[in-house]
Amino acid sequence: MHLFYTPDIDASHPMYFLNEEESKHCIRVLRLQVGDRVQLIDGRGGLYNAEISEAHPKRTILKINSVQTGFGKRNHYLHIAIAPTKNIERFEWFLEKATEIGIDEITPIICQRSERKEVKIERSAKIITSAIKQSLKAYHPILNAPIAFNQFVKQQFEGQKFIAHCMDESKTGLAAEVEKQSAYVILIGPEGDFSPAEVEGALQNGFKAITLGESRLRTETAALEACFEINFLNRK
Amino acid sequence: MHLFYTPDIDASHPMYFLNEEESKHCIRVLRLQVGDRVQLIDGRGGLYNAEISEAHPKRTILKINSVQTGFGKRNHYLHIAIAPTKNIERFEWFLEKATEIGIDEITPIICQRSERKEVKIERSAKIITSAIKQSLKAYHPILNAPIAFNQFVKQQFEGQKFIAHCMDESKTGLAAEVEKQSAYVILIGPEGDFSPAEVEGALQNGFKAITLGESRLRTETAALEACFEINFLNRK
């Protein structure tokens, strides 16, 4: 069934008007007609079953038949702060995959050794949106604006805080550290890893050093490994 | 340090001659000189420390200083049989990521609902090779030629056999099924999932149905999830 992302929907209202772009897509591209059923997700856990009551190419009207709230609600909260990769496609690939597997919040962090200092947030957000539609996720992950590493680690966070650096030090894995059904913030560094000063700064701010296994992973692979592990460890 | 993939190297020989292409890359592109140190991997677990003894642009001679065998040898054997994705980039992305995380053998399987019936094996093998160099893996995963699903499931395999289909049936996760430090074959279906007949055929041939979690995953993401889980469950 066709799915639309409608963050502005009001659950208490029996009707919803698709905007001009979505209406055009719905009627001209998908060629849907009155009575055809569609699904809507609001990005806040709401999954709506609806049908087309007026097939207008600029102002399609949908009748809401049922609403399910908290659809696919997860039992933990995962926030990954990752240094955007030099090749932006690798970062965008991470956004898509992490959204499929399960993530709540992503913050691009600019580190001392970051080769990339900026991210097109609108473009990245669109990738996340298409991923939630593809994988039928009713919650839209939050994508924050890029922030300097040193500022980020000084912020207050709930739950557990980890840094996955590559320096030779004794580190434990998430399996040994994670308190289940909690909130987690995990720092993933750039191609050249975090600087020793950054690692020190993170530890001083209460982040615990962890290892993601023996393999030498690219930045985006390490971030996805962390995402897999947290979801896997919290699986019922 | 610069790394070269040299599958034809003879561990008993103190010298190695880079082929014309690698020699050109080594001398003209990397501009390495006599005495510069490089590393070689043979794809069979051998990691070699060498230095340039003759910087010839067509026939560079390397002096082998030390050899380490069984480098990064893993404690299990993972064979993933995956239906190549319609968009080949997604399949190639899986090859790169699975190689980084850890995989031993990959077989493209052509299923009833496969939109793609062929794979450029040479091109795919190159992607795996660059991934082992990037992630310093001394073992080169085996990439088999595409084979029809029905033929594949009739073959003999050592260890445990799983099929990750999406049909509504009671399935357990790998965490409950996996015998550690074993060999595993895992079947991952195409965009439209396996057909009921294919699932039945796999079960009849001793494959066990498993779930990879609650999320609706793309083909390449499901295959990588399986790769993550097997490696994670076998982590020391």
From TrEMBL, chains A, B:
GO terms for biological process: rRNA base methylation. Residues 77-227 form the Ribosomal RNA small subunit methyltransferase E methyltransferase domain. Keywords: Cytoplasm, Methyltransferase, rRNA processing, S-adenosyl-L-methionine, Transferase. It is found in: Cytoplasm. Residues 18-64 form the Ribosomal RNA small subunit methyltransferase E PUA-like domain. It catalyses: uridine(1498) in 16S rRNA + S-adenosyl-L-methionine = N(3)-methyluridine(1498) in 16S rRNA + S-adenosyl-L-homocysteine + H(+). This is Ribosomal RNA small subunit methyltransferase E. It comes from Mucilaginibacter auburnensis.
